[in-house]
Amino acid sequence: MVQRILEAASIESLDQSAIPRLRMPERAAVFAARAARLRQLADASNPIAGYLRLMAALADAQQHVLADLAAPMPSRESIELNQRHSMPIAPALTADARDPAWRDVLFALLDRIEAAGALTPALAALVAELRATETAALDAQADAILALRIAEIEPAAAPFIVAALQVVWTDIASRIDKADVPYLDTPGVCPVCGTMPVASVVRVGGVYDGYRYVQCGLCSTEWNVVRAKCTNCDSTKGIAYHALDPAAQDTEDEQARAERARGAPLKAESCEECGTYRKIGYQDKAYDFEPFADDLASLTLDLLMNDAGFTRASPHPWLWPDQSETSDEQ
């Protein structure tokens, strides 16, 4: 009798109760939903409301450009090689894998936000500078951003460069067959493009109901990670949750504050093992929660976590630290 060895994806398809491992980006709505959420979060109480509205215009531009994009897909040979070695199926960290057309996407995005009238004089000057930047310098910035070589990144220009790369890799991810995506040996990175996630969300509805998914900051793919587990180092030890609560009183004891935090729609999940944190949102408490947008809009929670001695597991792709200011302070 010949025994048949099933692949992991095949086993999952046989078990109708299995947790869906992946949520691929919804091509027709991924950036539009992000733009809508950014505008929703840009209220008068948000200290970066103006920036959120600018980034909403950028996300709208991304959705428009994505509609007509068809980036080159990984070859079958490349897919099978990455599957055998448990590597990301469409790795972004290899410069050779990046379609030179990403720069055309960048300029198309700049055209759209200019036409939307979303630029201040300072931003208009930045856009003009980006247009005049040589090809090699743009590629060098893309390399630095994807490799998280933060000291080499230009913070003001980076969000626009990231936005172009996001359109390209979201296009690829939206057309990839989930069954082709391998399980990775390395925790904490996207199984599609190999870059870092932004935040996670506990979803409601359908087959995803009640499960936690971590969202990639580049291609918008989401993959399942069990709760109370560090999305950076994979540890299940020393996991804690932190939340902002404007209604909390200074006189409340620690237990009362913890009780209030339990019902918060957005928290920071910290890990004592690696000393980092990522944010987690709950759709049953905020149905419109969008990991990328809500992470960007909750800068005050980042300040709280910094005061508590934790560092971000990875920077937000649209908000980079200014290294020159850091150096001056030192």
CATH topology value of the largest domain: FdhE-like fold
CATH class of the largest domain: Alpha Beta
In whole angstroms, how far apart are the ends?
Answer: 71 Å
The SS-based structural class is: alpha+beta
The number of domains: 2
Count of distinct strands: 8
Helix content: 40-55%
Give the overall shape, derived from the CA principal axes.
Answer: globular
Write out the CATH superfamily name of the largest domain.
FdhE-like domain
Order of helices and strands: HEHHHHHHHEEEEHEEHHEH
Beta strand % = 5-15%
Main beta sheet: 8 strands, mixed
Give the radius of gyration: 20 Å
Give the count of helical stretches.
12
Rounded mean pLDDT is 89
At CATH's second level, what is the architecture of the largest domain? Alpha-Beta Complex
Core attributes:
disordered N terminus; alpha+beta; FdhE-like fold; disordered C terminus; 330 residues
Concise overview:
The chain is of the alpha+beta class and 330 residues long. It folds into two domains: 23-180, FdhE-like domain (FdhE-like fold), CATH 3.90.1670.10; 197-312, FdhE-like fold. The protein has twelve helices and eight strands.
How would you characterize this protein structure?
The protein is built from 12 helices and 8 strands. With 330 residues, the protein is of the alpha+beta class. β3 and β4 form a beta hairpin. The N terminus and C terminus are likely disordered. Strands 1, 2, 3, 4, 5, 6, 7 and 8 form an 8-stranded mixed beta sheet that branches. α3 packs across α5, α5 crosses α8 and α7 crosses α8. The protein has 2 domains: 158 residues, FdhE-like domain (FdhE-like fold); 116 residues, FdhE-like fold (Alpha-Beta Complex).
